[in-house]
Design brief:
Cyclin A, domain 1; two-stranded antiparallel sheet; mainly alpha; 4 strands; disordered N terminus; 766 residues
Length: 766
């Protein structure tokens, strides 16, 4: 496909495109103002954008690429990443920028001290709960990422919501459930967690609490945890297996220790590395490499490290909450690192004075041990006196879903996008009251959540999350307005609708050839439009933007992401690997690494279920969905409306009656009249798609295959294109008005795929 790329003669002979003038400014200069949607995600109206690479650096890079002397190290890859140079998952080309982004984002949604707002909880109760969580996490053999995220969820929820002590264990197991769904390849099942608690709770109670936590956290789980930084700093420390285990030991001690909530995850990770090196006597205790990667000097982390070392000292006590972590890391599996005596002497600066860490003898802790033992016995006795193995929901449980007793934090409000944004309460108060009564009486069944009839076939499918799929899509409908690209061609001097259509059509063709997931295609188009909405792009760089968007989308959606070499091969090696990586970084930086967005495909999947579609109707809906990707006009509509219009156009085309049902209206939130304009654009796109020179021809050719039931060969819905203005391109552009009913009859009579339109057929003036 002809991209009309500006290739000079010398570069053309080598099949290498030089970076055009102005390319370097795309990384460092914001030629277009950031949209309000972007500013809301940034968290402030005037937040300064993080510039990942300097202008001089990119100019230097461009010179090297143009001269052909650019090697793998042109990105100045750090020495600690060189062993992972061939590991695509390590993303060594922009791992520094990734961690710079993590350090910036760690301040958002970070919980602070909250015990003063929890009348029934305290530090010891929290420590007991986290210690139990660590034990369960180890028994279930989950990923460490899951543990750290679960603790983060617990602390964020307790920071935002007053929680009775009787509900605390439910919060813990639900947080573990949510984290496992986010991090694990195979998520935990509710029954697994119920078994761990001795069936103290019912499945309905767990699901109800899970929904409440997700609602209170606004479904925002993409946060940097301490573990993310630990992995990086372990590489910077050049740690052997023993040091690595010791660092993870201190990291998990930090999860149990409530004082650590004072510090950001990056500092906790740095302190864990420092404490581990002190304990094992690694010299020097702190290196220049560690200081560069952590951004902390030795003196800045010593107060945090001292808390971890003190936790290590207290951990061997059999009744101490930290003993669970101690017991885990004294196993041979972890090299028995917990058995090392904690660092007894190293300088630490507290309150401006130099002190020495001293080993705390048991006799000094005797009073504290007795107090903890009394509390432990009280907890044990209260459990023994429980009337039954099932805990009824106490009065006040319903308030956790419908009332916000604790004001939303500034961090939460920034993520919401407005200081006074009203929170969406997903379950109504009456509904929760009704649920509580059913649970208390023991008459609550699986259908207490009023699962929709379209979800009943998936009742046993955990991935379908039928218990809160309605709330999930309510959240999608709210979030689709953020980061949605708008008309941008007036800000692109070298681009137009036809050029964009050509690019997206080529992308559809490559996507099909690579057999990628449909989610990848829709996300890639979203990335392209968002980037073009924010950055002025020369025409010669558009194909580069397209392949990089596909690369990013594949890394986000696919089980096995594309490799850069795969994409270079598709372009006939017009670009070098370095140029692709450079552009990939620019796109991610411009989009602020924010890729968790609802696309049209997410809604298509739901609405296909609501339409009770057979395979033919399903293929037709996806056909219209992909036509909408190529058609620039569709950028005017939100993804939910585009998906609804695709379903409506497909039903009209196949003659499914009624064309619009009450079920579809309830799930899409649109009436038939509201989506007709959008559906008409899709039908017009279907009408012109067979033209051999039209950009939509690629989608048409794909869906006329037997693999997709040949649905593209159906004539477009007459009800949608009567009297419409449309275009047919054949060595020029002809515009026709008021398309005749007779022509539609001809299409049906002769077969749409064989129908040739010409001036004589339609009486077009010469």
């Amino acid at each position: 496909m002809d991209w009309n790329l500006e290739i000079d003669r010398q570069a053309e002979s080598r099949r290498i495109i030089r970076i055009p003038p102005g390319f370097e400014y795309m990384a460092t200069k914001n030629q277009d103002p950031i949209s309000p949607q972007q500013r809301r995600i940034q968290g402030t109206e005037q937040k300064q954008q993080v510039v990942l690479s300097s202008e001089n650096h990119f100019q230097h890079t461009n010179n090297k690429v143009a001269s052909g002397t650019c090697g793998v190290n042109y990105m100045e890859i750090d020495e600690i990443d060189l062993p992972d140079l061939n590991n695509q998952l390590a993303v060594v080309e922009y791992v520094k920028e990734l961690y710079a982004f993590y350090k910036e984002q760690q301040h958002l949604c970070r919980p602070t001290y909250y015990m003063n707002r929890q009348p029934e909880l305290n530090n010891d109760i929290r420590a007991t709960a986290i210690a139990w969580l660590v034990k369960m996490h180890y028994n279930l053999r989950l990923w460490p990422e899951t543990l750290y995220l679960a603790v983060h969820i617990i602390d964020r929820y307790l920071y935002l919501e007053v929680t009775p002590r009787s509900h605390f264990q439910v919060v813990v197991i639900c947080s573990l459930l949510i984290a496992s769904k986010y991090e694990e390849n195979k998520a935990l099942k509710v029954n697994d967690l119920l078994q761990l608690t001795g069936y103290r709770y019912t499945k309905e109670v767990v699901i109800c609490m899970e929904k409440m936590i997700l609602n209170r956290l606004e479904w925002f789980l993409t946060v940097p945890t301490t573990y993310m930084f630990l992995v990086r700093f372990i590489k910077a420390a050049k740690a052997d297996k023993e040091l690595e285990n010791m660092i993870y030991f201190y990291g998990e001690l930090g999860l149990v220790e409530y004082k650590m909530i004072l510090y950001v995850p990056c500092k906790v990770a740095a302190a864990a590395v420092y404490a581990a090196r002190c304990t094992l006597g690694k010299s020097p205790l702190w290196t220049d490499t560690l200081q560069r990667h952590t951004s902390y000097s030795e003196s800045e982390i010593q107060d945090c490290a001292q808390i971890l070392v003190e936790a290590h000292m207290a951990a061997p006590s059999s009744i101490h909450k930290l003993s669970v972590v101690y017991t885990k890391y004294k196993l041979k599996e972890y090299g028995g690192v917990a058995l090392y005596p904690p660092a007894a002497t190293h300088s630490c600066y507290l309150k401006g004075t130099e002190q020495k860490l001293q080993v705390v003898l048991p006799s000094q802790n005797q009073v504290h041990i007795i107090e903890r033992e009394v509390k432990f016995r009280e907890i044990r006795d209260s459990r023994a006196r429980a009337e039954s193995r099932v805990i009824r929901i106490p009065p006040g449980f319903e308030s956790m879903a419908a009332k916000n007793q604790v004001p939303t934090s500034p961090q939460q409000r920034r993520i919401q996008g407005t200081e006074q944004k009203q929170q969406v309460i997903l379950p109504s108060q009456n509904k929760v009251h009704q649920t509580n009564n059913k649970v208390a009486s023991g008459t609550c069944g699986v259908n207490y959540m009023e699962i929709d009839e379209i979800d009943l076939p998936d009742l046993n499918n955990q991935l379908a999350v039928v218990e809160y799929v309605k709330e999930l899509y309510a959240f999608y409908k709210e979030q689709q307005h953020l980061c949605r690209p708008t008309y941008y061609m007036n800000r692109q001097p070298e681009l137009n609708k036809d050029i964009r259509a050509t690019a997206i059509a080529w992308l559809v063709k490559m996507h099909y050839g690579l057999r990628l997931w449909p989610e990848t295609l829709y996300l890639a188009v979203h990335i392209i439009d968002r980037y073009l909405c924010l950055a002025v792009t020369p025409r010669s760089n558009l194909q580069l933007v397209v392949i990089c968007s596909l690369l990013i989308a594949s890394k986000y959606e696919e089980n096995k992401a594309l490799k850069v070499n795969d994409l270079l091969q598709l372009t006939g090696y017009r670009y070098t690997k370095e140029v692709v990586i450079c552009m990939e970084k620019m796109i991610l930086n411009r989009l602020e690494w924010y890729l968790t967005v609802p696309t049209t495909y997410m809604f298509l999947v739901r609405f296909i279920k609501a339409a009770k579609a057979d395979k033919e109707l399903e293929n037709m809906i996806y056909f219209y969905g992909e036509l909408g990707l190529v058609e620039y006009k569709m950028i005017l509509f939100v993804p939910c409306m585009v998906a609804a219009a695709a379903v409506y156009a497909a039903r009209c085309t196949l003659g499914k009656y009624p064309l619009w049902t009450d079920t579809l209206q309830r799930h899409t939130s649109y009436s038939e009249s509201e989506i007709q304009k959008c559906a008409q654009i899709l039908a017009e796109a279907h009408l012109v798609a067979p033209s051999s020179v039209h950009k939509l021809r690629v989608v048409y050719s794909k869906y006329e295959l037997k693999e997709y039931g040949g649905v593209a060969l159906y004539p477009p819905a007459a009800v949608l294109i009567e009297g419409a203005l449309f275009e047919v391109q054949a060595q020029g552009v002809w515009r026709f008005r008021q398309y005749h009913i007779a022509i539609l009859a001809m299409l049906k009579e002769n077969g749409y795929e064989r129908c040739n339109l010409n001036r004589q057929d339609i009486g077009h003036p010469h």
